[in-house]
Design a protein that fits this description.
Blueprint: E1 2-4, E2 7-9, E3 18-19, E4 23-25, H1 34-47, H2 58-101, H3 103-106, H4 120-128, H5 138-147, H6 159-178, E5 193-194, E6 197-199
Parallel strand pairs: 3-5, 4-6
Antiparallel strand pairs: 1-2
Helix pairs in contact: 1-2, 2-5, 2-6, 5-6
Length: 200
Amino acid sequence: MDILGDRSFLEIPGDKRHELPPLLVHRALHLKRLDRIVDMAAGIVESEDLVPGPSDNALHEQRRFELAINLVEQYQRLVLHWRWGDDILEWIRQCEITFGARPDLRHLLRHDIWPHAGRASFVQLLEDKAVPTDGVDVEKAVGLRLTFRQPPPISFFSNQFLFYLNDSVGNSAYQAWASKNPDPVSSLPPERFEVNVLEM
């Protein structure tokens, strides 16, 4: 086991570079019925009294609409992160199958860990390889996918969650998941693996 700084890396015999399955990701987000989502966001703005003052003037309506659009943009970012997280967990599953099928890699993964708990070394590998994410925080993405089996509709969220809390929820879920990795915690050496990202 090689140690670099405060991280240890698995020793892989030989000098062969191993190609992992491609990471298939959703780079763009296409929400169905965007008009309905905007209406739900407007309902959140109205029900939580986010726009003070009388509701019978044009300025109030404009501010309500602007806040609703802002909530929709926050929701779209959340769903995009969730989809990336879903794609990454599926990629980890494919990597587990690949490792299990190759005698030179089979011994690197513990088989008593399921589903995926402690597989944070694969997420770390994506970060070490500087995989282009177009602004998606990989750890938050995985954390949101671990938190939600499916992306909930916007009406399930408060404005506080969409504006402030989803970052901390996603990141803390990821940290809790990553902490389940049994000791010794070892990273996959990035120079020994090839990772290709393909857009779905």
